[in-house]
Amino acid sequence: MTVLLLILSVIAGVFLGKHFGKKEKLAKNLLILSAGFLITICLNEVFPQVYTAEAGSSLGIFVIAGVLLQMILEALTKGFEHGHFHHHNDHNILPVALMVGLFVHAFIEGIPLANEEHELSPYLLGIVFHNLPISFILGAFLFNRKEGKSATSYPSLLIVALFALASPMGMLLGNYFNPDLQPYFLAIVGGIFLHISSVIIFESNKNHNIDWVKIGLVILGVSLALVMHLFHDHSHVGHHH
Q1: Which parts pass through the membrane (predicted)?
Q2: Are 125 and 228 in contact (CB under 8 A)?
C-alpha cells in the first residue's frame, strides 16, 4: 500500500505535468498548498517524534544537517523542489544532475517509512502530497519540450521511473537499519521538509505585498494536515519511554 501510494503520486504528478505543464500558476499553487501541508506535518508529526526520542537533545544537529543537505541538493536540481521552471533554458540543467538530486532527496525521505507503524501515516501523506507538485514540474519539464524533439523519450521515462522508485528503495534500505536510528533519519528529513516548505512559502511574495490567494492556500494546506493530525493515533509516539 505504502509503495503503491508513493509510485502513484509520482505518476499522477507527471501525467498532470505533461498535460497541464504550460500552466505554471497551477504548479505554483499546488506547491504552496503542499508547503502548508508539509510544514504542519513537520511541526506536528516529525519533530515531536524526533524530540520525544531518548537522544532528543542532540538531534537538532541532524535537523540542521537536513537543511544543509537540501541546500546542496538544490545546487543539482536548480530549485525544482520549490517550483523553479526551466522551460526556456533546458540546457542549463543537466538531466543527470537533476536525476541524482531528486533521487537522493526522495531516497532519504523514504528511509523513515520503514519504521512507520501505521500504513496511512501523516508522514507518508506528507511525502505523497509533496511528490505531486514536484512530479508535475518534472513532467512539464521532461514532456513539454520544444517541438521537433520526441515528446516521450527513454531518458525521460528513466528519470520518472527512478524518481518514482527512490522513496520505496529508501524504505527498503530502512528495514536494515536499527530502529533506534529512526529519530536521526526523521530529524534529517524534518530539516529537508522545513527548508523546502519555508522557501516555497516565503520566496515568491512580490515586493512583500499581501497575496491573499497564497495565504489561503497555505491555510488550506495547514488545515488538511491538522485534520489528519487530529484523526491519527499518536499513542505509539515515544512508546519506548
Answers
A1: 55-73, 93-111, 123-144, 156-177, 183-202, 214-232
A2: yes
- Least Cα distance to 139 among 102, 171, 109 occurs for 102
Flag whether pLDDT at 235 surpasses 80: no
Tell which residue, 66, 9, 32, has the closest CA to residue 222. Answer: 32
Per-residue pLDDT tens for 78-110?
A: 777 766 655 544 555 667 888 888 899 999 999
Nearest residue to 152 (alpha-carbon basis) of 9, 5, 25, 19: 19
Q: Which of 75, 76, 81, 77 is nearest to 35 (CA)?
A: 81
Cα separation of 39 and 35, whole Å?
Answer: 6
* Phi, psi at 232, each rounded to 5°: -90, 140
| 70 grid coordinates | 537540501
Cβ(111)–Cβ(173) under 8 Å?
yes
pTM given for the model = 0.84
